[in-house]
Amino acid sequence: MTLSVIIPALNAAGDIVQTIASVAGASEVIVADGGSDDATCDVAGRAGAKIIKCERGRGVQLVAGAREATGHWLLFLHADTCLGAGWLAETKMFMADPLNAERAGVFRFSLDDESAQARRLEKIVTWRSRVLGLPYGDQGLLISRAYYNRIGGFREMPIMEDVDLVRRIGRDRIIQFESWARTSAARWRHDGWRARSLRNVACLTLYFLGVPVKVIQRIYG
């Protein structure tokens, strides 16, 4: 089974090399760049990734990356997220099991911050993923190409593209791995732990209430 890693990126030169290094062992790594004006494409290319350029917008970039990928399995990963030790062995076991042909796997959420606020947020995300079946894109997503295509894949949405897809997959078809995906906590440190978390909850609530995603995008920032 071949594995393609798809990373949407925008001005991610400071993170992208570490992210690419963390998925060593994948069959290919594709960086879908949404118009970076920093060195993202140069450093990602030197790190061994294939670069494609497309319109800005994470949904658009994810769609473009998946279209370019050649693997039997697709792993979607944010540019500021690194996978931890054991991820490759765990994903290989998952891909080898025929029962997972119509399931998806996500990683355990982790933040690169040693504060108590980070640990509390990690616990909340674990609960949300397991009980509500709502992992976000910063936990990564592993899915077979055939199943991805059958359910329509990502949609070209400016925000909430991850929630849209996992809802179509369904809570009972999402498996949480033991290995972690460690994401940058820069957004929470910049905006404030409580303020950023409340904003995320507000955006999710508005999405479920049917508010247009372009409106939610302005609130999200």
How would you sum up this structure in a few lines?
The protein has ten helices and eight strands. By secondary structure, the chain is α/β, with parallel strands linked by helices. It is globular, with a radius of gyration of 16 Å.
Structural write-up:
The chain is α/β, with parallel strands linked by helices. It has a single domain, classed as Spore Coat Polysaccharide Biosynthesis Protein SpsA, Chain A, CATH 3.90.550. It has 10 helices and 8 strands. Strands 3-2-1-4-7-6-8-5 form an 8-stranded mixed sheet, sandwiched between helices. The radius of gyration is 16 Å and the shape is globular. The relative contact order is 0.15. The model has no long low-confidence stretch (mean pLDDT about 95).
Tell me about the largest β-sheet. Answer: 8 strands, mixed
Q: What share of the residues lie within helices?
A: 40-55%
- The beta-strand count equals 8
Shape: globular
Gyration radius (Cα, Å) is 16 Å
- Terminal CA distance reads 38 Å
Number of separate structural domains: 1
The helix/strand series, from N terminus to C terminus, equals EHEHEHEEHEHEHHEHHH
Question: Architecture, CATH level 2?
Answer: Alpha-Beta Complex
Poorly predicted spans: none
CATH fold group = Spore Coat Polysaccharide Biosynthesis Protein SpsA, Chain A
Give the CATH class.
Answer: Alpha Beta
Task: Give the strand line-up of the largest sheet.
Answer: 3-2-1-4-7-6-8-5
Percentage of β-strand residues: 15-25%
Quickly count the helices: 10
Question: What class do helices, strands and sheet pairing give?
Answer: alpha/beta
Q: Please, what is the average pLDDT?
A: 95
CATH superfamily: Spore Coat Polysaccharide Biosynthesis Protein SpsA, Chain A
